[in-house]
Specification:
Blueprint lengths: L4 E7 L6 H11 L3 E8 L14
Parallel strand pairs: 1-2
């Protein structure tokens, strides 16, 4: 019996195919135990940016 690897996929699934392919792979791979998927939208603020007050 092989052990599974627990995985939490944090993704920005959008118009690019790379994250969707990764999700499909994880769902099909018996060695991976997909615990959950988190998603974000938009672009992150640039490094060093401050939050508006």
């Amino acid at each position: 019996m092989s052990e599974t690897v627990p995985i939490l996929l944090d993704t920005d699934i959008g118009s690019d195919i790379d994250d969707a392919v990764c999700l499909a792979y994880l769902l099909a791979e018996p060695r991976c135990e997909l615990l959950g998927v988190t998603t974000v939208t938009g672009e992150p603020p640039p490094a060093g940016a401050t939050c508006p007050s």
